[in-house]
Amino acid sequence: MTATELPPSLIPTLPGSSYTDPLVFALEQEKIFERMWFCAVRASDVDRPGRFQTVQVGRESVLVSRSRDGGVKAFLNICRHRGARLCTEESGEVKRAFQCPYHAWTYGLDGKLIAAPNLTSMPDIDRTAYGLLPVHVREWLGYVWVCLAEEPPSFEDHVVAAATERLGDAAAIERYQVGELAVGRRIRYEVKANWKLIVENFMECYHCATIHPELTEVLPEFADGYAAQYYVGHGAEFAGEVRGFTVDGSEGADRIPTISEDQDRRYYAITVKPQVFINLVPDHVIVHRMYPLAADHTVVDCDWLFLPGVVESGHDVSRSVELFHRVNVQDFEACERCQPAMDSRAYRSGGVLVPSEHHIAAFHEWVGDQLRG
């Protein structure tokens, strides 16, 4: 049955090869992850000069660090001499400079070449021109966002707008003080599935009643199978007897004092394409960052952010963390169940979506637009 033969209630999906073909994934790396703003690291992880993190963005390793003037810098993690990987660790700290472990070419925290064996005998070398290649960088919501494009898209139009438009109020997300919150817990998930399957899963709630019993106990409207969080300005309301966004409905941590009354006892979910999910509840914020590494392998870092006083006091946040950790495990297991079928002849032409999953169809259209661009 072709897409044109589908009954009106069903919507076609992408073909299975879109989730398995290395050539498709390479094109996505080039035209999506290397062109758009990419949420790289939590700013607090590079909170002082010399602290660094390395992240995979598309086909490139990117080095993110704090410079001596307090600003965040990002560079391609490649020595300009012979192309060796400059920083081989995922995170760390240097005192004054980055030194290549191959031939000891050395770069300041600003990326400038400052030393190399026999450099004084080569006075014609421009130390700035042969410094590290910079990457565009912005800080927002307490995260460092990078863009590998020579001319990056508007950060306001592509990142800020995705969050503010969803909430229906440009100031709504600022009331959660996301940039000032502290990391109460971070969990890394190795997901054996294509990144698009993860985005699609987050975008719909047709599966919620089937695999998320804990979540639907707290947010009963999710049991109806509709992604209510995708209605502009709408937050899913907590069940009447629920006191907090916790695995057992018990009271959570201290409420973020600046949220509005209509944001209290509600859950909001935001997708910032191509690789960020933001979940807002009254006492904490949950941020997912995806790192697509292969057509069938995606790393997801999930941060649970609370008021600094909650974290500093040692308050037990385990019940808050456990709720969405279970949701994550349930979701990622579902994605991993789908991934092998993407190679099946049964999915060669794709599958189908029901009307409540129309957001996925819009996402597929967006992916196609990027790849054709």
Radius of gyration computed on alpha carbons = 22 Å
| Broad structural category | alpha+beta
Strand and helix order: EHEEEEEEEEEEHEHHHEEEEEHHEH
Q: Would you state the CATH class of the largest domain?
A: Alpha Beta
Give the oligomeric state. single chain
Shape type: globular
- Please tally the helical runs, counting DSSP H or I stretches of 4 or more residues: 8
Q: How many domains is the backbone divided into?
A: 2
CATH topology of the largest domain: Naphthalene 1,2-dioxygenase Alpha Subunit, Chain A, domain 1
CATH architecture grouping of the largest domain? Alpha-Beta Complex
Number of strands: 18
Strand content: 25-35%
Q: Largest sheet, if any? A: 6 strands, antiparallel
Task: Name the CATH homologous superfamily of the largest domain.
Answer: Naphthalene 1,2-dioxygenase Alpha Subunit, Chain A, domain 1
Spans with pLDDT under 50 lasting ≥5 residues? none
Strand order of the largest sheet: 12-17-16-15-14-13
- Report, as a whole number of angstroms, the end-to-end distance: 30 Å
Write the layout of secondary structure elements.
Elements: E1 11-12, H1 22-33, E2 38-42, E3 51-57, E4 60-66, E5 72-76, E6 91-93, E7 97-99, E8 106-108, E9 113-115, E10 136-140, E11 143-147, H2 155-167, E12 182-191, H3 195-203, H4 208-211, H5 213-218, E13 236-237, E14 266-272, E15 276-281, E16 284-294, E17 297-306, H6 308-312, H7 318-338, E18 352-353, H8 358-372
Antiparallel strand pairs: 1-18, 2-11, 3-4, 3-6, 4-5, 7-8, 8-9, 10-11, 12-17, 13-14, 14-15, 15-16, 16-17
